[in-house]
# Entry
Amino acid sequence: MCEFCRIIDREASARIVYESENVIAFLDIEPIHEGHVLIVPKVHEASIDKIPEVMLLDVIQTAQKVVNALRELYGTDGYSIMQNGGRFCDFGHAHFHVFPRYENDGFGFIYPEGEKECSDAVAEKLRKKLMENK
# Structure
């Protein structure tokens, strides 16, 4: 059983800050900033395309609550929400990082080297696939 499933089942400890029928939210043990929360759907899947929509809706509603609480408690300049899926989901259980951000806090993305295409052809290809999968 994965660590997040163990937390959901109360077989492992966590500093839980919120829970609903579909999600559990707790403090990240290696926070980027104080107040860094993980929002975890209560289904063991590594990718959001496998998670029921009702759970994903609860994830985003919980993220909104967390963002509001972070702003009120810490006077943040903003926030970040991050999620890695599939092979890049390091715990094998989807989870969403929500953490406070501050101007000049040193956090940032590092983009890989090389050219990337951003064109009408790429947009059309994605648009077509999204319409197929409606």
About this structure: The beta strands are 16-19, 23-27, 37-41, 78-82, 96-101. Residues 89 and 120 are 31 Å apart (CA to CA). The chain has one domain: 3-132. The radius of gyration is 17 Å.
